[in-house]
């Protein structure tokens, strides 16, 4: 049975901090030595990851769908051996409904935590199906949150949007 240890090239979204950063750094240390593409928005943190021998790529998941598709197509063209995607990125806002809320924050959180996951899966599938036709395994891994199961009322949108699609 194929496993992530068989991956040749792994893309990790949200790799500039927290779980994503730890995942990217540890995946690069696998005995199989896969190429790891660490994505995020923070330039200085991406530069740090490059120093750790990862391929750091600026990739903003809050962009419109057309731009996201274009960015994903460019990534696949640059890394045709890409066979694993770990969708880890997330944004968490705390809302105080009595004080008022910014709807733009809700939209941003939903777009990054949910819509980008569904979109990137949709955009990567044709590439992964081609790999499958060649007998190569591919993997799609989504990172969720315990808050999807036990919600916090201060973060209702985050809790709902981190549920596995």
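-> sequence recovered:
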């Amino acid at each position: 049975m194929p496993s992530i240890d068989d991956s040749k090239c792994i893309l990790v979204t949200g790799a500039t901090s927290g779980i994503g950063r730890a995942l990217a750094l540890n995946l690069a240390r696998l005995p199989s030595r896969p190429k790891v593409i660490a994505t995020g928005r923070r330039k200085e943190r991406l530069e740090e990851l490059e120093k750790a021998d990862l391929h750091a790529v600026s990739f903003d998941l809050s962009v419109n769908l057309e731009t996201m598709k274009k960015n994903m197509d460019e990534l696949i063209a640059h890394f045709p051996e890409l066979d694993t995607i770990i969708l880890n990125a997330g944004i968490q806002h705390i809302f105080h409904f009595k004080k008022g809320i910014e709807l733009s924050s809700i939209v941003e959180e939903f777009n990054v935590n949910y819509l980008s996951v569904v979109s990137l899966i949709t955009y990567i599938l044709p590439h992964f199906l081609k790999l499958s036709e060649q007998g190569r395994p591919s993997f799609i891994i989504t990172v969720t949150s315990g808050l999807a199961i036990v919600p916090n009322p201060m973060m209702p949108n985050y809790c709902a949007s981190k549920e596995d699609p």
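The chain has a mean pLDDT of 88.
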